[in-house]
């Protein structure tokens, strides 16, 4: 199986004064504003790191859902929050970490098995595999 997805971005003006818009091929995002102000000054809009965080959270959550189903569970819920860190070093800016925090409620599952499946999902998630940075995982199991 193979899928190909697209995204696009435009940037009018240059540097801090420029204004951009980002869209996804599916239309889920359509001309969402982004730029220096949305990235570093909390202006309305999005930024690349926020989009990576959403991609990582959604990818990991789906991977964990499939791990749980493969382990024989048929009901439950998983919620994941991802926090992507952007830092400046001597070479410029770099994404240095993606911190995943997940919690699940799955009848009949125990804490140890949940943590094992979550770790496998973190390691196998395609976005985890794409990111060349520290990826942490904090789990919360509600039984």
From TrEMBL:
Signal peptide range: none
Classification via InterPro entries: KH_dom-like_a/b, OsmC/Ohr_fam, OsmC/Ohrsf, OsmC_Ohr_Peroxiredoxin, Peroxiredoxin_OsmC
NCBIfam families the record matches: osmo_induc_OsmC (TIGR03562)
Protein name, UniProt field: OsmC family peroxiredoxin
Pfam family, one: OsmC
Domain of life: Bacteria
PANTHER family: OSMOTICALLY INDUCIBLE FAMILY PROTEIN (PTHR42830:SF1)
Natural source organism: Aurantiacibacter zhengii
Molecular functions (GO terms): peroxidase activity
GO biological process: response to oxidative stress
